[in-house]
C-alpha cells in the first residue's frame, strides 16, 4: 500500500491503477473487476484484474491472490494468457495481463453457434495443451470453465484466471463464482477431498461435453442436485451428436469424465494425443471414403447412361452409407429414384391401357391406382384416369345399346326405347342408339294405331363365333363322335380345360382321325394360354399388393406356358425396373 493512502472504495472512478491508465471497465464478477488500460511506458494495451475491496482486506486471501498470481505469471504458453505485472494500488492488489481479443467459450456455447466438429475438437485440444503445460509447471487451475477460456478470431485458445478460484473459501457464500463453476467440478472437489491435476481433466471433459452437445453433462434445477449428479450419475453420452468422429470422440469425453481417478485420463497430454490420433485416423478414413465415393459417382453416371437404373440406385445408396452428407450422392439418388418412378409409371400406364383395350376395366383401374400412388400429380396419370373414365362411359353406352338391341329382338319395344334413350343421354351422337330409339318409337306408334299391333322384324345379332367345320366326316366310333361334339361346345364356351380331356379320350378311340388330333393341339394351346392368362392376373394382383416375389414367380410360370403373353411380358419389365 502506498504510504498515507487509504483503500479505494469500489465506487471511486479509477483513472489509473498503478502506472496503468484505465480506459474502461471490461467486466465485474464475484472476485473483482477487470479493466482495459494502457501501459504508458511501452504503450501496450493490457487487461487489469483487481480484487474486490472486501476480499483484499483479508490478509490471507490477499496473500494467496498475490502468490497464485506470481505462480501464473511464470507460465509462458501460447494457450495461456500472459501475466505482465503484479502490484498494489491503494492497498488493492492487481494483475496486469495480456488483453485478448475474441469471445469466451461460455458466450459461444450460450449462442449455440453452428460450429464444425473439427473446430470444437481443436478448441478442446488447445485447452489440453495449455493446461498440460501448467500442470507440468506444478500449477492446477481448479476453476476450469467456459468463462475462463477465450477464443481469438483466429481460433487460438487462451486460458485465463489461473489460481483465482482457489481463493473461494468455506467462509464465502454459495453465490457468484461457485454457482457458476460447480457444474465443472470433479467428484473429488464436490466431496471436499484433496484434489490434483486430474480435477482439471474432469473439468475439461465437462467443457468438451457441453461444447459438443450445447448442454451440460450434469445439469439440474438446484445446486445440491447438480452435486449429486456429478458424484453419483454418469453423463449421457447418447446426447452427444453423432459425427464422422463417432464413436471415438464420445469415448475420449467419457474417459475424461470418469469418476474413479484410476479410470480417468492421468494427464492432459494423453487426452490431447487421443484427440490428435482421432483427427488423423478420421481424416485418413474420410480421404479413402472420398476416393470410394468419387469412383462410385462415376460408376453411377455410367449405369444411368446405360439405362441400368436399379444398379445406379444401389450405388447411390452406397455413397450415402459412406457419406450421408454427400451432396452429389444425394442429388444422384433423388434423380435415379425419380427416373425409376417415371419408368414404372410409364410401363404401368401402358399395362392399364392394354387391359382396358382387352375389356378388363377393373384390372386397368387397379393398375391406375398404383400409378396414382407413385405420381398422383403427373400428366401421365391424369391422362390415364381420363381415358379410363371415358372408356367406362363408352362401355356403359355400348352395354345399353346391346340391351336395346336384345329388347328389339325380343319385341320389348318400350324397354328397347328406354335403353336407347339412356344411351343417348350419355352420348347424344350415338347413331345406333338413335336408330333403335327411332325405330322402336315408329313401331310403338304403329302398334298403338293399328290392331293387332305391328312389330318390326327382329334385328338379328351376330353369332358369338364358331369353329371352322372340320374337313373330315365324323369319326366312325360313336363315343369318339360324342366326345368331339362336347369338346366343340366347351371350346365355343372358351373352356379349353374341359375340352382337352374329351379330345384326348376321343383320339384314343379314333387314333387315325386327323381332325381330332389338330383340334386337340389347338385346345392344348388354348388351355396353356388360359392358364398363363390366369397366372398373369394373379401376378398382377400380387404386384398391386407389393408382393413382388410372388408376382415374379407367377409371371415366370405364365411365360413358360405362353411366351407370347404380352401382359406377362409387360409385368416382367416393370418388375425388372424395380429390381
Spatial strand sequence of the major β-sheet = 1-2-3-4-6-5
> Looking at CATH, which topology of the largest domain would you report?
Transferase(Phosphotransferase), domain 1
Percentage of residues in strands: 5-15%
The helix/strand order is EEEEHHEEEHHEEHHHHHHHHHHHHHHHHH
**CATH level-four homologous superfamily name of the largest domain:** Transferase(Phosphotransferase) domain 1
Shape: elongated
Which parts are unreliable, with pLDDT below 50 for 5 consecutive residues or more? 1-7, 164-180, 453-471
State the helicity in percent bands: 55-70%
- What is the highest CATH level, the class of the largest domain? Mainly Alpha
End-to-end C-alpha gap: 88 Å
Radius of gyration: 46 Å
Average residue pLDDT = 83
Q: Summarize the main sheet.
A: 6 strands, antiparallel
What structural category characterises the helix and strand content?
Answer: alpha+beta
